[in-house]
Design brief:
By secondary structure, the protein is α/β, with parallel strands linked by helices. It has two domains: about 290 residues, Rossmann fold; about 90 residues, ANL, C-terminal domain (GMP Synthetase, Chain A, domain 3). The strands form seven sheets. An eight-stranded mixed β-sheet has the order 11-13-14-15-16-17-22-21, with helices on both faces. Helix 1 packs across helix 2. InterPro entries: AMP-bd_C_sf, AMP-dep_synth/lig_dom, ANL_N_sf, ATP-dep_AMP-bd_enzyme. GO terms for molecular function: ligase activity.
Length: about 450
């Protein structure tokens, strides 16, 4: 089924700048340890835009973050939307392209096999002489510049169109949060892909609209993260996930001085937040949002369990979730998260997700808490508890678990869980695996969990 873009009008300028700081000399990105200024960046954007076909949308498959920035802006300047599938797996890309008839795909690598209509970016040689367009580019405020897709962790990925005005609004909240902790200026290194909405906000919009430079790579291993941080100037902000944070803490590697760390995409254990702050000597902020809403709250989990809302964000608790109002939203969005408000509604505490709440024989539990207790067992390196689709004669759905725990067996884990939770909520089956099927941001797509659970030994 084709996606219909639902754009909207705001009480705002009809056009908004592509780059938030009008300064041709300011740094947009760092490539191979060298800064790329706005003049060269815009020249490359215009050059790529001139090569793009006429269409309504393009799947942006660039892995290099600088190439993604160039492609993102070129696509937007052509009046097209960047399609951001939940992964670059061929099936996920094909499904997104099928929902947008007439679109094409764009990337910096030679792909084989390649999506239909695939186009490869020309080399983005920072040393080549280019002349920038003297006009500072702008985009219609109500233009849909991106369509993000949810990760599928709770089911089938769904589309979330974003206008340029909504991105400007969401970026303002993130800027205010980061200025308060990292200062007026900083450079960004991110371990998350730009196609994910968290990566989009913190490693694409921040450099475009906030005036900060971003490292072009997506470092994965701890040594790569340290090297990337060393290639950008201080002060530095590290945008990452709990999975990468745990690897950094446990590696023992030294990082260059950083002003702040950001985490999202999965719940961040307090113990890990405290360990990261001790190891790297910087505050660690966790941000709260979704593909549908973008970020609208933050907290410092090492010292505070409650979340603080961004200016203009309002929460309305509902029986089955929470309705969110925010400056970047044309209409309220209801999330499955259950919250309790405090301090005149400006702070909140998570109580679970409606879809995660379990009730068996009059007793209640949440999948999130069960997963937390599984992870707390000594020897369990990774794990998740989830509910199966099939119910028994009374409509009760079984609970299952996957765990990475070398040296343990299922009986030892179940015995430890039995001491921590009500036996009604013991996961059966519980299966030991070599690794959980986490995606690029550390999330666990439900389909992948079910496939792994059903895979024969």
């Amino acid at each position: 089924m084709a996606i219909v873009y639902d754009t909207y009008q705001r009480e705002a300028p009809s056009r908004l700048p592509l780059l938030g700081v009008v300064d041709p000399a300011r740094i947009v990105a760092w490539r191979d340890g060298e800064p790329v200024d706005a003049a060269r960046f815009l020249a490359q954007v215009h050059a790529v835009a001139a090569l793009l076909p006429t269409a309504t949308a393009a799947v942006n498959l660039c892995e290099d973050r600088y190439a993604f920035l160039v492609a993102f802006c070129a696509i937007a300047l052509r009046g097209q939307a960047n399609l951001l599938p939940s992964s670059r797996a061929p099936q996920a890309v094909d499904e997104v392209m099928a929902a947008h008839p007439g679109c094409y795909a764009l990337g910096e690598q030679a792909l084989d096999p390649a999506p239909r209509g695939y186009r490869q970016l020309p080399p983005l040689d920072a040393a080549s002489p280019l002349e920038a367009d003297p006009a500072w580019p702008s985009i219609a405020a109500d233009q849909v510049v991106a369509v993000g897709y949810t990760s599928g962790s709770t089911g089938t990925p769904s589309a979330s169109p974003k206008t340029w005005a909504s991105f400007h609004a969401s970026n303002s909240g993130n800027l205010a949060m980061l200025h308060a902790v990292a200062g007026a200026h900083f450079e960004v290194v991110a371990t998350v892909p730009p196609q994910h909405m968290y990566g989009m906000e913190m490693s694409v919009l921040l450099p475009l609209l906030g005036g900060f430079g971003v490292h072009a790579g997506r470092p994965f291993f701890p040594a790569d993260v340290a090297a990337a941080l060393a290639q950008v100037s201080a002060p530095r902000v590290l945008v990452t996930t709990p999975v990468h944070l745990r690897a950094l803490v446990e590696s023992g590697i030294a990082l260059p001085p950083i002003a702040a760390m950001l985490s999202a995409t999965a719940p961040l254990p307090v113990e890990l937040a405290q360990a990261a702050e001790r190891r790297f000597g910087a505050p660690l902020l966790e941000v709260f949002g979704s593909t549908e809403t973008c970020v609208f709250a933050s907290r410092r989990p090492a010292v505070d369990e409650d979340w603080s809302l961004y200016d203009g964000a309002i929460l309305h608790p509902q029986p089955d979730g929470t309705m969110v109002e925010a400056p970047q939203l044309a209409a309220p969005v209801t999330l499955a998260d259950i919250v309790s408000l405090s301090r005149d509604g400006r702070r909140f505490r998570l109580r679970g997700r409606h879809a995660d709440m379990l009730e068996i024989a009059g007793k209640r539990a949440s999948l999130g808490d069960l997963s937390r207790r599984l992870l707390a067992i000594p020897g369990v390196q990774d794990g998740v508890v989830f509910q199966l689709d099939d119910g028994d004669a009374l409509g009760v759905h079984r609970i299952a678990a996957l765990a990475v725990a070398p040296g343990l067996d299922e009986h030892l884990i179940l015995d430890a869980l039995r001491r921590a939770i009500d036996p009604l909520f013991l996961p059966r089956p519980l299966r030991l695996v070599d690794a959980l099927p986490r995606n690029e941001t550390g999330k666990l797509p439900r389909a992948a969990l079910l496939e792994l659970l059903q895979r024969p030994d």
